[in-house]
Amino acid sequence: MPAPRIAKIDQSKLRENVYYALRDAFTRGEFAPGDIVSLRILSDQLGTSMTPVREAVRRLVAEGALIDTPSRTLMVPPFDSNRMQDLKKARLALESLVLEQAMDRISADKIDEMEAILAAEPRGGDTTPDLQQNYDFHFALYRQSGSEVLLPLVEALWLQYGAYLNLIIHHQDAGKIDQHKHHNEIIHALRQGDRAAAQRALAADIERSFQVIASDGGQRVSR
Amino acid sequence: MPAPRIAKIDQSKLRENVYYALRDAFTRGEFAPGDIVSLRILSDQLGTSMTPVREAVRRLVAEGALIDTPSRTLMVPPFDSNRMQDLKKARLALESLVLEQAMDRISADKIDEMEAILAAEPRGGDTTPDLQQNYDFHFALYRQSGSEVLLPLVEALWLQYGAYLNLIIHHQDAGKIDQHKHHNEIIHALRQGDRAAAQRALAADIERSFQVIASDGGQRVSR
DNA sequence: TCGCCGTTATCTGTGATATTTGATCGTAGG
DNA sequence: CCTACGATCAAATATCACAGATAACGGCGA
């Protein structure tokens, strides 16, 4: 089994922290589709006992980021082209809806904040896309929808999508990805209040996210 | 604390069973918004130890059916009008999408099966709406979408909606609810392949679901 | 006598650990 | 080469120990 890099966590509010540590590891693409994860190894790496890890893992299973195999071992869902298409459809539909609600309420200040996120220094070097920035940008927007129901659903989709990030990061064309173009279009459309343009730009951005791995599936790249 | 009726469960595959037992209790409207639930009491009722209950409960929290209060006690989310509106919007959007995909693939056989569900004997007596039938009908349809991504999201919405079922069941107008009309319209539209009509009927059915409790909120009715 | 406040006892979830169960993998024997 | 047995490992449950919160109870003051 590969050993994803997960930093040890501090000992207060263990359960929450374990969950977010694992969640972060997912959104950073530390886990590759098909990876087997073990509660013991995770708890050793995190410096805690199995109990908090198990609860966090159970939550991740509920959210679809991990699956229970029939033999009870935990696995990152293997690459599945159909499922990925499904995921893309779901993202397009849900995030379109959330964007709609966000545009009803967003203020000029918040648009400025979103632009500030784009202006920040890239954290991952120039060769890999800045996943954290991408995440921050989208959710700064989505949070403006004010929907406590839809937002967790979108987060669940991103978490499932997270396993595919590993494939993207290690893909040979990773450096070519240009997320800035669509992001700037979204900002511009928000300023204009142009709903159709914002929807188009967001849809294009989501399509882009899947484009790199759409053709060649299942190239498992562990650390 | 009220004592929701939860049957003891058999001892194999405990974790799954505990989860589904609690889930069922939710969809039967056994829990009222604002109820406090205790791990120990639940595990006593189910005849197991706390551990499996804890994991099941943790999953329900992740799905929004229960919430953690700041003092760490578990609570059924209290009635919240805004949240309910939010939930309705989400259900309308997501179930519309799922219906769309289901209509691409559904066969005449499956439509017959759905009709058979409607023809079955009502289980709850004539005064209360048959919640199980309603659930079975909708998900027989949604399963035809074949979407492993969207279906769990819809289930999560129904679970959050479940807490409000308690309010509906004990509502004075509960007997007046006529779910058959919209269901038959859906069946008819499916047979005709009339997408617009199916969408209209489904939307009307969802609206109906919320109508009873839309006006008077928070009438807490425990057992 | 009534009301307020502090103390205490109980009940809560949380984290850790031990025990049991089940599955997998390697090896030895046919 | 295939099969079957056993050792090993991981997950599932139960039990234990701890810390925090809640609520009830009793004493004190008005």
TrEMBL record, chains A, B:
Q: Note the SUPFAM superfamilies from the entry.
A: GntR ligand-binding domain-like (SSF48008), Winged helix' DNA-binding domain (SSF46785)
Q: What is this protein called?
A: GntR family transcriptional regulator
The record places domain HTH gntR-type at 12-79
* Keyword Disulfide bond (UniProt): no
Keyword list, A-Z: DNA-binding, Transcription, Transcription regulation
